[in-house]
Amino acid sequence: MKRIKSWRLSLGWQILLGLVIGIILGACFYENIKFITFATNLGDAFINLISMVVLPIVMSSLIVGIANMGDLRKLGRIGVKTLIYFEILSTIAFIIGMVISNLAHLGSMVDLNQLTKTDISTYLKTAKTTHANLGSVLMSIIPTNIFASLGNNDMLPVVFFSSIFGLGLASIGEKGQVVIDFLNAVSATMFKITGWVMHVAPFGVAGLIGATVAKLGLASLKPLSLFILMAYATMIFFILVILGITSRLFGFKITEQLLVVKDELILAFTTASSEVTLPRLMDKSVKLGVDQSIGAFVIPTGYTFNLDGSAIYQGLAVIFVAQAYHINLSLSQQLTLLFVLMLTSKGMAGTPGASFVVLLATVGTVGIPTSGIALIAGIDRLVDMGRTVVNVIGNMTATLVIGKSENEFNQETHDRYVASFKK
């Protein structure tokens, strides 16, 4: 007898199905407090499950990778190269956002009387209490208590400690092998748990998007629909053209990267969270031929410094709001905005609601009312879905580029893994 093959949806399709179901339920239960509470809790439970395994994976993988590397000068070179790459790409993203917003001039078409302001008092408090300078960010990288950093989910201090610990393990030779074996087991266990957690991803996605639609309602999107369309068009341009050219310069194809990480991009889009993709992204970077030490360093660091999607959004939003208030910004004012955005985006790294905090800390420098940011706060969740996708694919491209530039890349492994997705 022939064995009948079981048919099942792939993870990507399951997540998309969860997205559709969430939108339908959100529309049906518009402003229903009980549904919003239930859906929010369901989505948060999934995010928390992923957050639970992220730092153990980063820590164990990075320590093992650095221990195997065992070279302080090489680690320093990779760190400097990675940060320079991040700065160049994020600056390009800022410029593209501002240029397209200037060319489209959609802000002047918006009637401010049609827009509902959203409460942004929390972001205003954060903007006032956060010191927006690069020096404070660099100082915050060095942890005084690594366990406190783990408890607070502070990624950069964990990356710093793991790198130093890995170098320490390498320096003691065979004595450190038992620790390396233990951390290899921890990493494998965490990746296994991640696989289990991903089975509930469609439910988490349905909850997150359902709560968003139930709060906003579909009708509230109409006044700012042009801004949403402009944001998504700009992000698609950045992925296909800017990341496409960058990939080509190093012998990669952006279309192949999109194919390999499509499930992670769908997950990032539906949850608006980069963190949920981190474990699978690190795993796939190794399968794409990048050395483990490179992926374990670049990807977690990129989650703080390589936010291309957020940079595009900030560049678009600041010009859009100015146009909505009919404020004509001169070239010198826009260059000032660009400079301030570049500084504040690094100074706010890791701050909750960082994109809004950056905008609030920036717009006042050229006379744009901070209250204008409240006008686009309502659609932030929907735009955040798109900018998260850009952040995720940007970090994968960065990992491949840094791996290739360091000769820590296996082309055969890469081609074989990509071919498995094309079949």
Automatic annotation (TrEMBL):
Annotated compartments: Cell membrane
Location (main, coarse): membrane
Signal peptide from the UniProt entry: none
PROSITE patterns, per the entry: NA_DICARBOXYL_SYMP_2, PROKAR_LIPOPROTEIN
Keyword Transport found: yes
Topology relative to the membrane: Multi-pass membrane protein
Listed GO MF terms: symporter activity
Source taxon at top rank: Bacteria
Keyword annotations of the record: Cell membrane, Membrane, Symport, Transmembrane, Transmembrane helix, Transport
Pfam assignment, any one: SDF
Cross-referenced PANTHER family: PROTON/GLUTAMATE-ASPARTATE SYMPORTER, PROTON_GLUTAMATE-ASPARTATE SYMPORTER
Protein name (database record): DAACS family dicarboxylate amino acid sodium (Na+) or proton (H+) symporter
Organism expressing this protein natively: Ligilactobacillus agilis DSM 20509
Organism ancestry: Bacteria, Bacillati, Bacillota, Bacilli, Lactobacillales
